[in-house]
Amino acid sequence: MTPGPSTLLAIDIHFWDWIWWIATKASIGRDDLVAEHLSQLYDHLLRPLGATDEPTTIDAAICAYLKIRDQLEKGYGVMLPRALENEVRRGIETIFRQPA
Length: 100
Prior knowledge:
The protein is mostly helical. It has one domain (8-97). The chain contains four helices and no strands. The chain has helices at 8-27, 31-49, 58-76, 83-97. Helix 1 (8-27) packs antiparallel against helix 3 (58-76) and helix 2 runs parallel beside helix 3 (58-76). The termini are far apart. The model has no long low-confidence stretch (mean pLDDT 95).
């Protein structure tokens, strides 16, 4: 999907859905799936949006995406809702605070 004012919301939803899926796998120790899907996230979403470094952690993927999203929002003069991002980030904090 090519980024533009009419596609940024769909891209944002897709990113947060994907990062949540990766986080749930990380929370149960599936490092193999985490590595595989961070690589796929980079290849299919982050790199096409302009990221230059493949993330090796969930936090790095989120940071890369937020930087790109901020630039796209400014460039297109739009502001995406943050409700999904906030919910996913709270969920990630919660699952990593729980004892294994």
